[in-house]
């Protein structure tokens, strides 16, 4: 393909030159032969698509709407509205593989814990709008470690405190959580040295190191490679929010009432209200 255009931009008032060049490049592929001319003849259709907030769902002008596969339609969307490609790709995956492939599985911290060891840190890769601390505190409570759990939010001057906690944790079998590692860039080499120095046969078998950090180029690569990595995405939509809440409830919790039917209805109403607010 080349960037030579067969005709000048037919709608410079709304179509960028870059988008038009990409349309013309697409026309150079056998499957899309004639698309650029069809585009010029059906400008109203493509302007509506270009302006739409739901561009990924807008139909193309015929014969392209009927003749092209869903993947080939993605190529046209990529030319006109690249900002909608991610959403469209999710629809493509759902159509060809199934809805479950675009829905994040329920967060199972217990399984992640089972894969860890005293010398294997557990790393939460944070994303905006998601906080793993509630899940971590619940796991500590379930594992009877709520009184053997220490945490410190890293930042200016918190390095020495974190080092003392790590020494105490490795000696006494305490869980230590170092939060926001991305805010302590200068202390990361020290953390890397401490983690690399953990000897599995000498450290207390109950010791666990939990780390939380936003994605950062300064986070030690060695710790990432040797640790159990987890990411907690904020739930999107009512269903995902409700699933997130209900995975935290046990049957014992749901039945722990003298009026279980009314209790469950109240709990569902509260969770639904929370999901709507979210």
From TrEMBL:
GO terms for molecular function: dynein intermediate chain binding; dynein light intermediate chain binding; minus-end-directed microtubule motor activity. One of its GO terms (biological process) is microtubule-based movement. InterPro entries: AAA_lid_11_sf, DHC, Dynein_heavy_D6_P-loop, P-loop_NTPase. GO terms for cellular component: dynein complex. It comes from the Eukaryota. Residues 118-231 form the Dynein heavy chain region D6 P-loop domain. It holds the Pfam family Dynein_heavy. This is Dynein heavy chain region D6 P-loop domain-containing protein.
